[in-house]
Design brief:
mainly alpha, single chain, 172 residues, disordered N terminus
């Protein structure tokens, strides 16, 4: 059993932030009455990520993507897989899952997938692609701060010839 005081395995650098949460979160006003009725596996996968068990989250998503899911839930499942891959430091897998989510999602949660795609691109060393993803996330996010901070970090990294984590550390 994992100790609650130990540092989580696969912990993301504190400098690039992921966008978390399922699209049907109660934090958003739902214009679709049924959007809040998400499949249980999505809640279970989200809890697995919170408990630092990205392998379990990927297992749940993989087992359930074969089901007939609502479009929003299918995008959420790919988004959860993206976050799980990032937690496992599998940036290629994260990129693929984020792209799958973006092919489906055209609504208000699209910025989250774009932001997480930007994180994956930065980890892969693709600063130009990361900046593009973060810029689109900023444009579609409304007032969310996470993609703005990540965009600033990616631009600083590109300007200073290092990683975004190094650029933020120098600015602190």
């Amino acid at each position: 059993m994992k100790s609650k005081t130990s540092k989580p395995k696969g912990c993301l650098p504190a400098l690039l932030a992921l966008s978390v949460g399922i699209g049907a979160s109660s934090a958003y006003a739902n214009d679709d009455t049924y959007a809040s009725f998400e499949p249980g596996f999505l809640r279970q996968a989200e809890r697995a990520l919170v408990r630092d068990d990205p392998e379990r989250a990927l297992q749940l998503v993989g087992e359930n993507l074969v089901r007939d899911l609502r479009t929003t839930h299918r995008a959420d499942a790919h988004g959860l897989a993206c976050r799980a891959h990032l937690a496992l430091e599998n940036s290629e897998g994260a990129r693929t899952s984020c792209m799958d989510a973006l092919e489906i999602e055209r609504g208000r949660t699209r910025w989250r997938y774009l932001n997480n795609l930007g994180v994956a691109e930065m980890r892969l060393g693709n600063q130009e692609a990361a900046i593009k993803a973060f810029e689109e996330a900023v444009l579609t996010s409304g007032s969310a701060r996470t993609p703005r901070r990540n965009l600033e970090a990616a631009i600083a990294a590109a300007d200073e010839g290092g990683t975004s984590d190094q650029a933020i550390a120098r600015r602190r």
